[in-house]
Amino acid sequence: MPETSSVARRYAAGIFQLAQEEKSIDTWRAELAKLDELLHDDVLVAAFKNPAVGVGRRMELAQLLKPELRPETENLLRLLVEHYRTAEIHRIREEFERLADEASGILHATVTTAIELEGDDRRHYEQALARKLGRKVNVEFRTDPAVVGGAAIQIGDHLVDGTVRTQLARLRQELLS
Q1: What's the CATH number of domain 6-100, 3.40.50.1370, 3.40.50.11540, 3.40.50.300, 1.10.520.20?
Q2: Which of 36, 68, 80, 90 is the most exposed place for a label (fewest CB within 10 A)?
Q3: pTM of the entire structure?
Q4: Is 41 exposed, middle or buried (0-12, 13-18, 19+ CB in 10 A)?
């Protein structure tokens, strides 16, 4: 998953603030999902990548294909089209989801291991993290053969790196010192 851009964070924060004020977080979740799907339509993606297609024409195309959207969501769509930010919608949606989960007390963690983890191992990590942190944790699992063994756990800005790769790098550094 690509890193969230500052643009996506700003849009998501604005939408989240509005959703909190309106007490409509779940509604916005659904609307952003529709918008994400719409803006990944092959026809729109191709048109939006074409510099010859102006903002007016982009809006017309989006209006032709758009699902039933609330006026607030249509305004967001218009902003994204006018500022050439439609490619950011997926990251905006992900960041909004993260903010909404965080407000609900749900943490997001990424566990990176050398091999693909199966169901029982995944549940073990999820339960251990929830127990340790005292909160519900949504875990994304990634594989990276370069870690060799062990796991790296990222929760927000906090990283716990228990990978063999890191241990070997530390040992190498100590030997060179």
Answers
A1: 1.10.520.20
A2: 68
A3: 0.69
A4: middle
